[in-house]
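Hi support team,

I'm filing this because I wasn't sure whether my run with coenzyme A finished correctly. The job status page said complete, but I'd like someone to confirm that the output block is well-formed before I use it downstream. Pasting the exact inputs I used:
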Amino acid sequence: MNAKIIGTGWQLPAYAADNDYLSTIMDTSDEWIAERTGIRKRYLAKKETTTSLATGAAQKALEASGLQPEQIDLLIVATITSDTETPSTACRVQAELGAVNAVAFDINAACSGFLYALHTADAFIKSGIYKNVLLIGAETLSKLVDWTDRSTCVLFGDGAGAAVLTATEKGGVTAQVTGCDGSRWEVLSCRGRSNHNPVCREESELGYLQMNGQEVFKFAVKTVPLCIEDVLKKADLSAEEVTWFLLHQANKRIIQSVAKRLRQPEEKFPMNIDQCANTSAASLPILLAQMNEQGKLHSGDRLILSGFGAGLTWGACVVEW
Ligand code: COA
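And here is everything the job wrote out:
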């Protein structure tokens, strides 16, 4: 059995901050951000939370799938910005949706989170343990970034995307590759709570996201084409046979470089980075759901989903629509 996507949904906060707005609160410009990254605006949560965005996207995906919340066996939220350290966002979304029969947990694999979640869901479906799975990528990155660091804060945005999967005999997710190089964790990281137990009493503030942008850039343009080639090999497909390459929306120049390395036309690499910026684990499911909503995905299409992020982590999968 494979996992087949039968419904998608997306949700963004109500408030959009464009590059011109950012240039009024820090030393930056629309020209710098757009030229280096392709980003024009990002959505920032005011009242929304990771849980509310995740729930909104999930409700739409469920409605599109035709399944009832009680029919979901497994609910995974990929996120690095859970509203609560515990319980997981997935537990809270389970309650909001009334998905009372679902086992629920979060996955932290940063911007590769949705792919890690998809891989996990596919394994559970293949093993016959679960049949219907709800996957959500949801983030409120705006609470994690350092708004005094112009080289990182302009890159990220908030949002959520969701997909409902069910077991299928043919098609669906036909090949997956995921990977991690933990030795390079410091390239992109966010410090957590420090220890303050009675024998340690270490006092330090919670950290914000820190990134070596150029190292991440080099890692992405090298690793993403390699893992796409890997997954194509696993699926016995050529790049020419792929209808769409949906890449993690981190930087337009990274996506263009991957297209070039794979010798594929840029038109096969849809982008919404200009509108949404980098929404981490939410980036791929938002793009997927928007393309689905726009009627751009047809039965028999072959999709590659691929991403990379903190960890360092990466992944790619082949989906037969
Ligand atoms: N506005 C204006 N200037 C800025 C700026 C901003 N928002 N951010 C940085 N700069 C300045 C720098 O201070 C530097 O100035 P200097 O030359 O006077 O020192 C100059 O722009 C160039 O900075 P640099 O870091 O070399 O730029 P870059 O071309 O490498 O682009 C990134 C920076 C972050 C856009 C790019 O490295 C990148 O996209 N990396 C990948 C990040 C990523 O995808 N992260 C998420 C992974 S999931």
